[in-house]
Design goal:
This protein is mostly helical. The protein has 2 domains: 83 residues, NADH-ubiquinone/plastoquinone oxidoreductase chain 6, subunit NuoJ (Four Helix Bundle (Hemerythrin (Met), subunit A), Up-down Bundle), CATH 1.20.120.1200; 43 residues. It contains 6 helices and no strands. It comes from Desmospora profundinema.
């Protein structure tokens, strides 16, 4: 049991929860259940950030992804009309998907283990929340605002498309 700290066990449990939520999100058939599984995955990832001592990223993960993205998904689900028909996947498609995911996993693991990571870290004083805010709102303010306008246009477009569906 050498090397089994509480932090390692928490990281392992949260990782399994995040992967499980992602698998449920892919395999569930009802869209609302899929959105809830995705929110569960996002919360698990926020927990992983806490175990990595990145509390700011954990809070951002909860606020932006778990909160805003999941609410936007549910909002989009409520605006569109869904048919009750569900399609069954064929066995060869599921097998091919499993082989593809396994190959992707193997490729990613190979790339991670072949990448030489340096053990050096940058100066912690330069990477604070204050410096991040200064960079976002001073140096990158135009891309930040363009992204917010783009998201607003996408939301308005989704509402317009949903209104057109309800008229026909």
């Amino acid at each position: 049991m050498n090397g089994w700290s509480g932090e390692f066990i928490a990281f392992f449990v949260l990782s399994v929860m995040a992967i499980g939520g992602a698998v449920f999100m892919i395999n569930l058939t009802r869209v609302v259940h899929m959105a809830l599984a995705l929110a569960f995955t996002f919360l698990s990832i926020a927990g992983i950030y806490v175990t990595l001592h990145a509390e700011f990223l954990a809070v951002v993960q909860v606020l932006i992804y778990t909160g805003a993205v999941t609410i936007l998904m549910l909002f989009g689900i409520m605006l569109t009309r869904h048919q009750g028909r569900e399609e069954e996947g064929s066995l060869w498609k599921e097998g091919l998907s499993f082989v593809g995911v396994g190959a992707l996993f193997g490729l990613l693991m190979w790339a991670i283990y072949q990448t030489p990571f340096s053990g050096e870290t940058g100066p912690v004083e330069l990477y604070t929340v204050a410096h991040l805010g200064e960079a976002v709102f001073k140096h990158y303010v135009i891309p930040f605002e363009v992204t917010s306008v783009l998201l607003l246009v996408a939301l308005v477009g989704a509402i317009i498309l949903a209104k057109k569906e309800s008229k026909s």
